[in-house]
């Protein structure tokens, strides 16, 4: 065993072990390579780590700043959005209230419209009824107009020419003047008599007719306006009789009131005629039925004659 070990050692001694070129070169030139210090390698590695950490720190700082700016912007936008949301919420509330008001008003308008529609229907029905009644009235009016034409034709024949019909009597209003007795006789010659006034309606008709005649002719003189009527108390003073002998009806007398003393006619004044005033005349007054005055029968007045109408 020991011999083998010895032989092997000799073998290894005679072997020229190849060294790396650098090392061989050093030996050849008689120089030895400087050994590398492991602490220098560690220092170099630490420097790069520091720069790397600084670079990473800068990146992190820049990222943080960027994130901060981004967060600030997002926060600002969020506040703005919250403000807008609040405003929209208020607007929505206002709009909701407005919509509710509109709905309420719409219901009221619908109710009013329904009522107006019902009223329109009622009015339409009423108008239709009026139209129907109007047609009926037009038909009746046409019939009455035809009847009136027929009656007018008959009336014209009922009274003599220049005489006017009223209440079944024909009346003549003269244009010339005579005393009372001549007027009575003239009316008799015409087939009638001096007018006998039997009602308030007839009195108003005669008074308004004389008023219109005198004022259309622009007659202002009272004597020229006056017309004899068929009433006298020449037989017995104070007892007034119509020309047919009928006494004056106390319910149908229309004596005028005197303007100078406010007394009632007749007054039998004898200042102009000693015989007094025994005949009655009608002197028209606007819108008054009290138009009778007693006068002297000798005075000259126009006259009103009367006769019965003849209606076929």
Written overview of the protein:
With 312 residues, the protein is of the alpha+beta class. Among the domains are: 91-158; 164-308, Mannose-Binding Protein A, subunit A (Mannose-Binding Protein A, Chain A), CATH 3.10.100.10. It is built from six helices and eight strands, in the order αααββαβααβββββ. It has helices spanning 2-14, 21-29, 38-158, 180-189, 200-216, 222-225; strands at 164-166, 169-173, 193-194, 227-232, 241-242, 279-282, 292-295, 302-308. Strands 1, 2, 3, 4, 5, 6, 7 and 8 form an eight-stranded mixed β-sheet that branches. A hairpin with an 8-residue loop joins strand 4 (227-232) and strand 5 (241-242). The longest helix has 121 residues, at 38-158. The protein is rod-shaped and about 180 Å long.
Keywords:
312 residues, alpha+beta, Mannose-Binding Protein A, Chain A, 8-stranded mixed beta sheet, rod-shaped, disordered N terminus
How does the major sheet shape up?
Answer: 8 strands, mixed
- What's the CATH H-level homologous superfamily of one domain? Mannose-Binding Protein A, subunit A
Uncertain segments of ≥5 residues (pLDDT<50)?
A: 1-33
- And the CATH topology of one domain? Mannose-Binding Protein A, Chain A
> What do the pLDDT scores average to?
84
The ordered H/E elements are HHHEEHEHHEEEEE
CATH class of one domain: Alpha Beta
How many helices in DSSP terms? 6
**Strand percentage:** 5-15%
Q: Would you count the extended β strands for me?
A: 8
């Amino acid at each position: 065993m020991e011999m083998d070990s010895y032989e092997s050692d000799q073998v290894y001694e005679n072997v020229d072990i190849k060294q790396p070129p650098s090392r061989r070169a050093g030996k050849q030139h008689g120089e030895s390579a400087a050994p590398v210090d492991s602490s220098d390698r560690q220092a170099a590695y630490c420097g790069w780590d520091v720069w790397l950490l600084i670079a990473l720190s800068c990146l992190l700082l820049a990222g943080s700043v960027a994130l901060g700016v981004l967060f600030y912007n997002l926060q600002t936008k969020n506040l703005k959005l919250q403000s807008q949301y609040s405003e929209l919420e208020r607007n929505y509330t206002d709009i909701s209230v407005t919509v509710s008001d509109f709905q309420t008003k719409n219901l009221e308008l619908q109710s009013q419209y329904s009522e107006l529609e019902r009223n329109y229907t009622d009015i339409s029905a009423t108008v239709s009824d009026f139209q129907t009644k109007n047609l009926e009235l037009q038909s009746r009016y046409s019939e009455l107009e035809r009847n009136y034409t027929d009656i007018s034709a008959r009336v014209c024949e009922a009274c003599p020419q220049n005489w006017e019909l009223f209440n079944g009597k024909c009346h003549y209003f003269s244009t010339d003047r005579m005393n009372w007795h001549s007027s009575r006789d003239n009316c008799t010659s015409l087939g009638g008599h001096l007018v006998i006034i039997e009602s308030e309606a007839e009195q108003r008709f005669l008074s308004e007719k004389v008023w219109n005649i005198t004022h259309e002719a622009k007659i202002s003189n009272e004597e020229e306006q006056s017309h004899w009527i068929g009433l006298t108390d020449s037989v017995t003073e104070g007892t007034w009789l119509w020309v047919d002998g009928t006494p004056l009806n106390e319910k149908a007398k229309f004596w005028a009131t005197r303007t100078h003393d406010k007394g009632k006619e007749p007054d039998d004044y004898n200042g102009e005629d000693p015989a007094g005033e025994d005949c009655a005349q009608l002197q028209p007054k606007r819108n008054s039925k009290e138009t009778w005055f007693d006068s002297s029968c000798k005075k000259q007045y126009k006259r009103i004659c009367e006769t019965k109408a003849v209606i076929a």
